[in-house]
Amino acid sequence: MTAAAKLPEPAATDCVLGLDVGGTSTRVVAIDLAGNRLASGHSGGGNPVSHGAANSVRNVSDAIAQVLVSVAPERVRAVVMGIAGITNLRNDAGEPMFDPVWREAGLTCPVRLVADAVVAFAAGTAAPSGTVLIAGTGAIATAIDDHRLAGRRSDGYGWLLGDLGSGFWLGREAVSASLRYLDDIGPGGPMVDSVIKALTPQSHSPATNHIIQEVMSVEPVRLSRFAPLVTQAAGDGDPVAENLISQAAGHLVRSIELIHTDPARPVVLAGSLAGGDTPVSHKVLSALSARQPDLVVHKAIDGAAGAAWLAARMVMSDAESLRRLHEVFVPART
């Protein structure tokens, strides 16, 4: 949805909507142009690839409806939604998939759809260009130029072909380590014990074949559920878990270095593993600091707020005002 005529200058009481649409959840925030958070909404995952078009549209619509209970649609000057796979977001008739959402919500303002990586980068910095690493269930590093995808990426190939250092990767490696222990060819410890316990019913003795069957009976990506067992054990000093954390961080740092060619530009870490307070994040930060002491690294905590700031850029032109507004929308996290 675009505006044909130039919009009037915004008032501080006008607001913008930012949406962070992922495979696990959909988050929406309304923030006025003075930086006040007015309302937020939350619903299920909105990624059409993992949830299907109908469920995706419904969840995005539900989250927006929660916000518009207390924010009149006519106050909204712009909307930005971050979502993966934006080039394919059309319905069977060729119409942009989410256009009915905006119409039914009564939103007549400009709406921009951007890649989830663009929103993650904006959630970490007001700089226009740099590199963002997203590491959660999956993992990808990608370059950002002028608040857009630059076309340079490392990994993000999915569980079968890549996502090295991701939550899936950690979970798979943890289960593999547990199988080696049961076959008496690898060390045990708290992490291995916790994985075996999670995969072995109380009525069974731990057995390699049973664990393999349990893992093979569900979607491979669900191996990511064991990643917290790795990070917890590593935090408690388990050497097997610590080794996996170091390997994961090494993969992620390598992905960043393959993409990040300009040391004057910032790096943003996002996702539950890289952007959170985790052993993986700590290792990545430490490695980057050791290799490039002057590198500026930020963490992206609130993707929806990053999307809202990008929406504010659609209606405001003063660079200094936008910089100050970014500090209010998404306070710096390092």
UniProtKB/TrEMBL annotation:
Species, as recorded: Stackebrandtia endophytica
Protein name, per record: N-acetylglucosamine kinase-like BadF-type ATPase
Residue span, ATPase BadF/BadG/BcrA/BcrD type domain: 17-311
GO molecular function, one term: kinase activity
Transmembrane spans: none
Keywords: Kinase, Transferase
Pfam families: BcrAD_BadFG
